[in-house]
Each structure stands twice: as C-alpha cells, then as structure tokens.
Amino acid sequence: MRVGLYPGTFDPITLGHIDIIRRAAALVDKLVIGVAINRDKGPLFSLEERVAMIEVECAHLTEQTGTEIVAHPFENLLIDCARDVGAQIIVRGLRAVADFEYEFQMVGMNRALDDTVETVFLMAEARHQAIASKLVKEIARLDGDVSKFVTPRVNAALRDRLS
Questions:
Q1: What is the average per-residue pLDDT within 126-139?
Q2: Contacts of 132 (CB under 8 A, 6+ apart)
Q3: What CATH number does the domain containing 90 carry?
Q4: Containing domain of residue 55, as a range?
Q5: Could you give the residue ranges of the DSSP H alpha helices within 41-87?
Q6: Please, which residues have CB within 8 angstroms of residue 45's CB and are 6 or more apart in sequence?
Q7: pLDDT band at residue 23 under the 50/70/90 scheme
C-alpha cells in the first residue's frame, strides 16, 4: 500500500489545498493530511477545528477517488510523522519559485534524516497559485470576499470567527 503524507497548518484549508489533495489522492492508496500543531504560528482555528474542516471538506474526495484520506495532527519532525503514519511519500504543493527554494532545502534535510521517504512536488493549478491561508485570513479580517479561495463552509467559519 502506497501511503502519502501532505503536511501543512491548514489554517484554514483553501481551494488550493483541496486541489493538491485531490491530485495527490490519485498517486497513493492512502493520503494522510498531516495537520501541524505549530503553536508559533498562532493559528486562527484550533487544531480540532482544522482537523474537522479537513475531514468535512475531503469526505467527497474519498468517495470520488477511492483513496482513503485521513487527517492526522502532528507536532514532531515531519520525517518522524511520515514514519509514524507509514508514509513512503511526502507531498508538497508549490505555488511559486520562492516556495521551491524553501522546499528544496527541506527535502535535503529530510533526505539526510531518512532517505527512504521521497518528496513529490505538485504545482498548484494556475487559478490557485496566489492562494495562501495567511492572505485569505488577512482579506477576511479586513471584511473582503474570500469566496473565490475557500469553500462556502470555510468561508462561513472565517466569518463567524472574525465577527
């Protein structure tokens, strides 16, 4: 069984994340969405809320793709999380060249820690390349329309949290 791990903070999950999840599901038998606890980032949504959003937003993808998709919180090293869930592949989404520079460095470090786990990069579709959770939160905080970037449920959760 091929297991992939797609890690991130997902605060909140965006249409860009969902696109990468849908496409990654075609590459593996099981896709684990690693939800980073990362207290340093000061997330808008709690870990439990982010996990619940992922589960709700990805339920239809499991049905569509036939790939098991599960959310898994983690606070340890990414490579240790990959070992914990039995992942042979780490999936990373790329939006721009700046993402690649950071990700390239991370791949090198992860390979030094465990060279049995491969990293696969998926380019975001053009319509999703500008989407970043940080920017979505900022637009929502300033009462802007984020409906192009998140699902209706996530949009409602943002509005509720920020009102």
A1: 91
A2: 14, 16, 95
A3: 3.40.50.620
A4: 3-162
A5: 47-65, 78-85
A6: 11, 12, 53, 157, 161
A7: very high
Tell me: is residue 116 an annotated ligand-binding position. no
Residues 123 and 129: their CA atoms lie apart, in Å, by 8
Q: What is the pLDDT of residue 128?
A: 85
Catalytic residue set: 17, 41, 95, 133
Q: Virtual CA dihedral for 51, 53, 57, 61, nearest 10 degrees?
A: 0
83 is in an annotated binding site: no
Domains: count for the chain: 1
- For residue range 44-77, what is the model confidence (pLDDT) as tens digits? 999 999 999 999 999 999 999 999 999 999 999 9
Q: Does 72 appear as a known binding residue?
A: no
Q: Which of 58-72, 89-103, 112-126 has the lowest mean pLDDT?
A: 89-103
User: Is the CB of residue 97 less than 8 Å from the CB of residue 123?
Assistant: no
- C-beta of residue 74 within 8 angstroms of C-beta of residue 45: no
